[in-house]
Amino acid sequence: SIAILLYLARKFKTPDHWYPSDLQKRARVDEYLSWQHVNIRGKGSKLFLTKVLLPLLTGQPLSPEKLECVTEELNVVLKQFEEKFLQDKPFIAGSEISLADLVALVELMQPVGAGYDLFEERPKLAEWRRRVEEAVGKQLFQEAHEGILNTKNL
């Protein structure tokens, strides 16, 4: 949860870039963390549930209309994310990775795990993903997302 992440950042005095002491940068992180619950998390999770879990649980195929509707909802918030939060910066809070970037990418990996490559036609988003992966470490990133990226094996 967001509360636990913030607690851990404070308790263990993580490097400043994760949860910046600069009030403007911290406000950007806080703004994103508040916004993402019903936007990126809400729409990304909905696509994953609709495309992967519901057909698995019900044994019924997904209607193309339903998938199109859920995908369009996600596309709307992805555009907002790029325009409002990424803008022309390397990361959400500026030039360094923060908890906001980490949370954002984790949430975006759910639709990817459902087979929707949301980075394919979004070069700005794809470059941001590459920067986040590099900042975290590609191997750690792959390990952390191994389960969600292998849902097709269900």
UniProtKB/TrEMBL annotation:
Residues covered by the GST C-terminal domain: 22-154
Pfam families assigned: GST_C
Subunit structure: Homodimer.
Annotated protein name in UniProt: glutathione transferase
Main location group: cytoplasm
Places the protein is found: Cytoplasm
Entry GO terms, CC: cytoplasm
Entry's family note: Belongs to the GST superfamily. Theta family.
A Gene Ontology BP annotation from the UniProt entry: glutathione metabolic process
Catalytic reaction list: RX + glutathione = an S-substituted glutathione + a halide anion + H(+)
Enzyme class: transferase
Keywords: Cytoplasm, Transferase
Gene3D superfamilies: 1.20.1050.10
PANTHER family (alphabetical): GLUTATHIONE S-TRANSFERASE THETA-1, PTHR43917
Gene Ontology terms, MF aspect: glutathione transferase activity
EC number: 2.5.1.18
